[in-house]
Amino acid sequence: MAQKERLEQIMQIMRIDGKAVVTDLSSQFGVTPETIRRDLEKLEKNQKLTRTHGGAVLKESGDSEKISFLKREKTNVEEKRKIAQLAAKLVPVNASIGCDASSTALELLYALKERSDILVLTNSAKAICEMEHSKFELLSSGGYVNRQSYSFQGGTARNMIQEYHLEQVFMGCRGIGRDGGIFDSHELEIEMKKALLEQGSRIILLADHTKFGSVGFTKLGDIRQMDIVITDRRPSDEWMALFEENHVELLYEEN
Q: Per residue in 205-235, is it b (16+ CB within 10 Å) or e — as a string?
């Protein structure tokens, strides 16, 4: 991969996550840590980021708080819609479900808008606006508003989630490691995901094909904690074996 292309991809990661770690980038791009450090140095000289010990953080701009969710919302849209349609078919009549603040979970809520028989609990601030005219009953966790992820976080949100038993919990992630680790990028958001995970009878992970083999900066858990993984296409035999070994059901759209 040419340096120009790598720099563009590094900036895409930075815009989504707000930060980057040298060792993670080195592994992802298959280059040495020294190469990544030179890349970050060049981006810093161009006023794109600020280098830190072991990585870098995105330089703040007027829109920096919003760019993360907005970028994710517009990435792999068709793949997320395929996943959402498959996930919507799993929601039984009169179910109580939980959804995190991921862009894929929001697509699921779009797919469920006409369901008047279900109750949805979410920490997504975006869902409160987008689902104004939905037919299902919508409960918000409330709490501190993170404007970067359009989500509610903190003790108030966590306590609200812990008041409910949920038949199903749907959540997205930043990536699934080849060892079965599930990753996200923000510690406070992971706290909310874990709260939902603890309240759900069935945990369903929504992950498009780009998440396979990708890692974030904080570990959410392991694949064995998931009951079902829904993706947009059949993964390689290596991944199929991983899910089978961990007794995780895999759903994807058949071509």
A: bbbbbebbbbbbbeebbebeebbbbbbbeeb
pLDDT in tens, 159-179: 999 999 999 999 999 889 989
- The segments of the chain whose pLDDT lies below 50 read 61-67
Cα–Cα distance measured from residue 143 to residue 205, given in angstroms and rounded to the nearest whole number = 24
The helix/strand/coil state of 98 is strand
Predicted confidence (pLDDT) per residue in 101-117, tens digit: 999 999 999 999 999 99
**pLDDT score for 71:** 62
Domain(s) of CATH 3.40.50.1360: residues in the chain: 70-251
Q: Where in the chain is the domain with CATH 1.10.10.10?
A: 3-59
Give 161's contacts (C-beta < 8 A, 6+ positions apart): 98, 121, 123, 141, 192, 195, 196, 199
In the CATH hierarchy, which fold is given to the domain comprising 3-59?
Arc Repressor Mutant, subunit A (1.10.10)
| E-strand stretches of the chain | 19-21, 49-52, 55-58, 96-99, 119-122, 137-140, 144-146, 151-153, 166-171, 175-176, 181-184, 200-206, 218-222, 228-230, 249-251
- For the domain covering 70-251, report its CATH number: 3.40.50.1360
Distances from the Cα of 208 to the Cα of 87, 102, 135, 167, 187, angstroms: 12, 12, 27, 23, 21
CB atoms within 10 A of CB 6: 17
